[in-house]
Amino acid sequence: MLNFTIRRLLLAIPTLLFISLVIFLLLEASPGDPLGDVPLTVPPEVRDRMRAALGLGEPWFVRYVLWLKQFFWVEPLHWFDQVFGTGFSDGMQRIISFQSRSAVFDVIAQRVPQTLTVVGMSYVVGILIAIPIGILSAYKQYSWFDQIGTFVSMIGFSMPTFFTGVVLIIIFGVNLQWFPSVYDTTLQVRDWDSFMAQVRQMVMPVTVLALYNAAQISRFMRSSMLDNLGQDYVRTARAKGLSERVVVLKHVLRNSLIPVVTVIALGLPTVFGGAIITEQVFKVNGLGQLLITAIHGNDIPMVLTLTFIFAILIVVFTLIADILYGVLDPRIRYD
């Protein structure tokens, strides 16, 4: 397992470098000018100095290598200095956003708590709902519970999140006025009242995303359970006199989780990436909304950094899923 992990990590290095180059070239070829919003009254020489300050006067390959240096060397040094109070990164140029003129990683760090609070909670809730529903639906195939679970899952998976979000806002935010329709990102939890206010404003976005995630994961769980319930080892376990609870929850569930782990692991990067559509509907000031704003503003450093972070998360969680295969099924070997 250790050798497999080391090989995968070494293979991930050229893979991520190639991904970063492709993203950089795509953004380089995109139309638009980071200084397009600068008033026309600004003299040309001032615009040239602004362009030079943003590093736009250098060739693309020089800016790409500089960005790699900043991402893998300058930024880690800066955060190391922040934690341990050293000064290794003093005088080094960090990755700067074209829009805010602030360090990209500082802006991302400000948005991460909002994204993890809403999107992360919805993903956890979706998993906790989906796995029991998938198990019971497979064990009681074609029962009324299975029929209802299939119906709800099809609705949750087929309806887009922007539609269900608007429906919840109209019903519970406008008509009933149970929950706020706009997420207040400035709210700070300091006492019980502010905690309840935070819970109330999280209910609708978490419900929308949890329904979508649970619909997908429960279908995979049900299908995988049905495949394993008909296997020979299940009949053998029952013939040995094992209880139905032990057969289902210990033997069948463990083998059924292997494909479900893939779905969950590949979905985890979306937690950090934010729910772009849902964040726009409920005005959650998270990473998804930040990415949309950066794309509209042609903020290449912000878009490049965010998309590359998402690529790193996908590679990492894919590796974690492969490792979990061996944990769930001892028959799987990577030697």
Q: Helix coverage percent of residues?
A: over 70%
Supply the CATH class of one domain: Mainly Alpha
Structural class: mainly alpha
Overall residue-averaged pLDDT value? 80
Low-confidence stretches: none
Describe the structure.
With 335 residues, this protein is mainly alpha-helical. The protein has a domain at 104-328: MetI-like fold (Orthogonal Bundle), CATH 1.10.3720.10. It contains twelve helices and no strands. It has helices at residues 2-29, 44-53, 60-84, 104-139, 144-158, 161-175, 192-229, 232-239, 244-273, 276-282, 287-296, 300-328. Helix 11 runs antiparallel to helix 12. The radius of gyration is 24 Å and the shape is globular. The model has no long low-confidence stretch (mean pLDDT 80).
